[in-house]
Amino acid sequence: DSCVASPAPGSLKLSTVMACPTGCHCIQKSGMTVVQCMSRNLEKIPSDLPRDTVVLLLASNHITHVPNHAFRELHYLQEVDLSNNDIETVDVGAFQGVSDSLLVLDLSNNHIQSVPKEAFARLRAKISLSNNPWHCECTLQEVLRELRLDPETVNEVICHTAVQEEYAGKPVIQVLDSGINFCNFHHKTTDVAMFVTMFGWFTMVIAYVIYYVRHNQEDARRHLEYLKSLPSSSQINKDCDTISTPSP
């Protein structure tokens, strides 16, 4: 497939032919290049996207991963739809190069449990993260603090699991608005773990000292008993006198 771009006003060229990824359909719409790759059984994001792509539709495929620099060359990219895929991981630099241009990002209905807090750094886009099996903890809290979530789907960002089990099944924003701070809980958990570790080491040291003392006490007791079993100096002198005195 290929897409044919309409000539710019005043251009001497009648048309510009641009490459389109295999299995996708590229069209010009209102002066924008729209790349449609929906429901094409794609397992990864195409690497040969037209550089003037403005709208990229990748919904309903089998994409599992958004790699670093996936859209780096697409300087005009405004909208990316990755909904209804099998995405589990989003790399730290997945959206590097498009943070200034991207306006809409849809990652809803995937398998994302967590993302690096730097993955969406400096993105101004309206983002949909609904219907993913999110694990609610400190990193997710820090990620959401920096995002501009789609207000229509914000209540569909649910804690599938959480560091505090009672919040599983509840909307993340609702939990955070109630005053819960997962980062404080994380620190408390770390402090408890450190205390338990230190207590374990302290117990081992005490046990060793007790063992050492008891072992030395046993050695001392045996040594004392040995010394007691030896003849005394007075007995030795008496025996010597008996031997040295001549018989009458």
TrEMBL record:
A GO cellular component entry from the record: plasma membrane
Annotated membrane topology: Single-pass membrane protein
PROSITE patterns the record matches: LRR
Official protein name in the record: Leucine-rich repeat-containing protein 3
Family: Belongs to the LRRC3 family.
Residues passing through the membrane, by range: 192-213
SUPFAM superfamilies in the cross-refs: L domain-like
One Pfam family it belongs to: LRR_8
Database matches in Gene3D superfamilies: Ribonuclease Inhibitor (3.80.10.10)
Subcellular location: Membrane
Keyword list, A-Z: Leucine-rich repeat, Membrane, Repeat, Signal, Transmembrane, Transmembrane helix
Species of provenance: Anabas testudineus (Climbing perch)
Record-annotated LRRNT domain positions: 19-55
